[in-house]
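Tutorial handout. Part one gives the primary structure; part two gives the three-dimensional structure as tokens.
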Amino acid sequence: MKVAIACEASSFQLKEQVKKHILDLGYEVVDAGQQSEEENVLYYEAAANLAKKIQSGECERGIVFCGTGAGASLIANKFKGVYCVACESIFTAEKISLINNANVLAMGSRVVSFDMACEMAERFLAGRWCEGFAEQRRKNNERGYEVLRQIEEEQCRAE
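Part two.
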């Protein structure tokens, strides 16, 4: 799987740790954010760069970092076809791909530790939508995702 990853200035070290971890797991990584500590990429730039990688189909999933994860998530979600959730727990990071079919995980460098961030990324990337679900639960989740996409389409037409 090809994974986009991006960060802004305050989360550079966390991004580097997670990037190394997922590379070690065998994922291909496209770094769309800050490349060195000397740069000063802002959260909205990093999130937009990453979202474009997902939107274009160049990458299947993404992980974006800012101070809290919230700002990057807000920006990423403005791109059609990008479904980003800011997470602060391993449980939630795992469930967003399994239940919600989210394709981007946002994390905050001021919220999660290096070890926790690596575990969150691993679980998020390993999750497969509706895997192991009973038929009725799978159908309910598919319907929920369909509703999400319909809302997105309606909003695009309204603009």
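Part three, for discussion. The first strand starts at residue 2 and ends at 7. Residues 131-159 form one domain.
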